[in-house]
Amino acid sequence: MSSQVTGVASEDGSSGEFGANEWLVDEMYERFIVDRNSVDQSWWPILESYHQTTIEASSTPPAPTPPTAPAEPSAPAEPPAPAEPVAPPAPVDVAPIEPPTTTGSQPVARTTSIQPKPQPIPAQAPASLPQAPTAATADPASSERQDVVSTLKGMSKSLAANMDASLTVPTATSVRTIPAKLMIDNRIVINNHLKRARGGKVSFTHLIAWALVQTLKEFPSQNVFYDEVDGKPSVVAPAHINLAIAIDIPKPDGTRALLVPGIKNTESMSFQEFLVAYEDVVTRARNNKLTAADYAGNTISLTNPGGIGTEHSVPRLMKGAGAIIGAGALEYPAEFQGMALTTLSDLGIGKTITLSTTYVLRVIQGAGSGEFLK
After folding, report:
1. Range of the domain at 217
2. Res 82 pLDDT > 90
């Protein structure tokens, strides 16, 4: 799963509080106007207000056109003077044409005894020449391809709008590569215990997300965001740590959807409670059972581009978000990946993971983010 955007979306008025999930509200609304029972009832109040906003925007009467001032009466035009009678043209005398007169004998044409040379007779041109094949009759495979223009819809449309809005948010990114030996060993111990007890497994993302929550307790300065309160620039510290998890969902048509639901009040959970809440959110996301409350109120996000082998990425932040944490690929350093495992063991080279934090520079400083990643 991976995410490149997070936070509150643009200020167009419909679903700004849902951030990167704004596209989902548009899809829900399209289903709602066809059959409201196809949408979970928790969405109805939001979609009804969305409907009212759309109607008001479309029914706004145009501004009245100011009446034009009446034209001032002009002075009456003088009647035209009567035209003088035109005299008829005088008749023109045309002299009759006399035939040419001949005097004496008729002129005789001169002849010669030399016969003209025979001229070659040109061949008759064909009635119609074969025409060269035009573009319409040419082989379709050889014709030039045309550009394909597709209108952005749904998630792609929302993503484009979010990217434009993100340009107004000043951000910075801190990156740290850390050894993963301890995390790998702890995961083996936990999974062996679960295998003997109740079953199930713990993933690396579970451990990273849990470590993120515990670290935010020690560094509450990273769980903040910028806002304007009463027209004054302010830093807002949320009362809870609501961790948003980016989930990549394949759709029936072959495309993929990015959902970013949140786990609420994670600061008060035990590790077992956190695992249950994490799996509940992921399961409901894959079964299309998430509600509007799952998308609202998230304070910090976690993305895992390392699941597809990416070392680290630099995501974008939306208005209302404070930071997004990225977990890169869990691998041996690139310069040692071609060595045998025995050689790596002899050299004492282990796997590493790259962690990054992209934060709003208005309220979070680089030194604090660097300490946070340790």
Report:
1. 5-26+156-372
2. no
Q: What angle do CA 157, 163, 169 make, to 5 degrees?
A: 150
User: Can you give the pLDDT at residue 178?
Assistant: 92
Confidence class for position 297, pLDDT limits 50, 70, 90: confident
Domain assignment of residue 240, yes or no: yes
The distance from CA 92 to its chain's CA centroid, rounded to whole angstroms, is 87
pLDDT tens by residue, 258-292: 888 999 999 999 999 999 999 999 999 988 888 88
Over residues 299-317, mean pLDDT? 86
Is residue 125 very low, low, confident or very high in pLDDT (cuts 50, 70, 90)?
low
Structural domain contains residue 250: yes
Whether residue 351 lies inside any domain: the answer is yes
Number of neighbours of residue 20 by Cβ within 10 angstroms: 30
Contacts for 109-116: CB closer than 8 Å, 24+ residues apart: none
Q: Which residues contact 62 (CB under 8 A, 6 or more apart)?
A: none
pLDDT tier at 163 (50, 70, 90 boundaries)? confident
Question: Is 330 in contact with 274 (CB distance < 8 Å)?
Answer: no
The whole-angstrom separation of Cα 300 and Cα 286 is 21
With residues binned 3-state (H G I as helix, E B as strand, rest as coil), the percentages for the chain, rounded to 5, are 35, 15, 50
- In the chain, the number of structural domains is 1
Question: Which token pair is 148?
Answer: 């394909």
Q: What is the mean pLDDT of residues 334-345?
A: 91
d(CA 367, CA 369): 6
Pull the structure tokens for residue 46: 């939001």
Q: Please, what sign has the CA dihedral across residues 349, 350, 354, 355?
A: negative
| The pLDDT of residue 301 | 92
Question: Which residues sit opposite 175 in a β-bridge?
Answer: 356
Residue 300: per-residue pLDDT: 93
CA distance 360 to 338: 39
Task: Name, in order, each residue with C-beta under 8 angstroms of 325's C-beta and a sequence gap of 6 or more.
Answer: 212, 300, 301, 302, 303, 355, 356, 357
Q: Which of the 8 DSSP states describes residue 105?
A: S
* 318: CATH: 3.30.559.10
How far out from the chain centre does Cα 100 lie?
94
Classify residue 6 by its DSSP letter. Answer: E
Domain assignment present for residue 111? The answer is: no
